[in-house]
Design a protein that fits this description.
Blueprint (H helix, E strand, L loop, with lengths): L1 H28 L5 H4 L7 E8 L5 E7 L2 E7 L5 E7 L44
Antiparallel strand pairs: 1-2, 2-3, 3-4
Amino acid sequence: MDILFYLFVFALLALIAAAAVWVGKGYLNGQSPTAALFGARPERRLGVIEQANVDGRRRLLLIRRDDVEHLVMTGGPVDVVIETGIGERPARRTDPAETVMVATTSQPIFARSPRTFGQSGERAPERAAE
């Protein structure tokens, strides 16, 4: 009877040690310990990259979806998409002589002709010569 008790205690300690190694391995790999049973988590498709407060109510959000970034302003009377389709930042080199800035082309969502000082969107009525 004594040998059966010691065998049970040994099996229980071995099981606890194996579970500790399994959890420790998952922790050191930076993933959930249950990933071995259920598989790794799928890669996240949506995330807030940066945020900045414009004023007390409005906020600018840089959102990434499927490796494409979008700039959104929230909190005002209407949420506005400012820029969409922002790609990756150009890679910067360490040597300043070889630095080449690659221009990313993104089309504005709402395009209008630029105005100069004193112009409005409407034309003033022309006066008849007196």
